[in-house]
């Protein structure tokens, strides 16, 4: 259960010239670890996350999930891979307003061909894991911002992904709620064994990371000074 980017380069057309978004990037994220990705706006963080999610195919290099090289996969194969292997948590939860917290999770299973009833135990387990067992029947407007983000995280884990990609999950939260969300992501990374990548601008969250990857001008540097306590 790991994520590996090797020699990834991504170049976009930019008028009459070309813009290098990622320049020979290599990133290894082992299972049960969290890598924080930091860097200034426009440095390539979003491009890195999109490539890791197989939403964008790099010009050169490889993206491997569970030692499976995604190079050459068809669009359908990549869609299936994302559904089965990759969980994504975006800045905004984008919950469906008409569905309860429990139903938000069940609908993920329905898209994967399972019935809501079959998905019910897993959905309840995950809501309990994120501390929302008592809020299962509430709709998004009845939940706080932090609670909505917790539902978002639980939804991303519904299909038991290998890789968890998290994009600025605390941007709309105050410091206390943001810290609680990051602590939850760390705990679930350990518990579920995911290879987790967290993109963040908030340096106060870096102490929670096993590794820090700094992106500048499409290139990546690694910091290993912060290690998980044994």
Automatic annotation (TrEMBL):
GO CC terms? plasma membrane
The record places domain ABC transporter at: 3-229
Q: Is Ribonucleoprotein among this UniProt entry's keywords?
A: no
Q: One GO molecular-function annotation for this sequence?
A: transmembrane transporter activity
Concerning SUPFAM superfamilies, the annotation shows:
P-loop containing nucleoside triphosphate hydrolases
Query: Which residues are in coiled coils?
Result: none
Q: Which UniProt keywords apply?
A: ATP-binding, Nucleotide-binding, Transport
Q: Does the keyword Nucleotide-binding apply?
A: yes
What is the protein named?
ABC transporter ATP-binding protein
């Amino acid at each position: 259960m790991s994520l590996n980017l090797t020699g990834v380069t991504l170049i976009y057309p930019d008028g009459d010239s070309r813009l290098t978004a990622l320049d020979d990037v290599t990133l290894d994220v082992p299972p049960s670890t969290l890598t924080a990705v930091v860097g200034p706006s426009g440095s390539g963080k979003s491009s890195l996350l999109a490539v890791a999610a197989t939403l964008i195919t790099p010009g050169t290099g490889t993206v491997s999930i569970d030692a499976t090289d995604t190079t050459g996969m068809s669009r359908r194969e990549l869609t299936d891979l994302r559904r089965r292997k990759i969980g994504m948590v975006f800045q905004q939860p984008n919950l469906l307003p008409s569905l309860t917290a429990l139903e938000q999770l069940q609908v993920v299973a329905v898209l994967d061909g399972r019935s809501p009833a079959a998905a019910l135990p897993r959905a309840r387990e995950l809501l309990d894991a994120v501390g929302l067992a008592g809020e299962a029947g509430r709709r998004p407007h009845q939940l706080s911002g932090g609670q909505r983000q917790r539902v978002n995280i639980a939804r991303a884990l519904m299909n038991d992904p290998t890789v968890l990609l998290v994009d600025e999950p605390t941007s709309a939260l105050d410091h206390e709620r943001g810290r609680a969300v990051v602590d939850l992501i760390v705990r679930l990374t350990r518990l579920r064994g995911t290879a987790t990548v967290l993109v963040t601008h908030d340096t106060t969250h870096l102490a929670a990371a096993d590794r820090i990857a700094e992106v500048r001008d499409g290139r990546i540097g690694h910091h290993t000074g912060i290690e998980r306590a044994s």
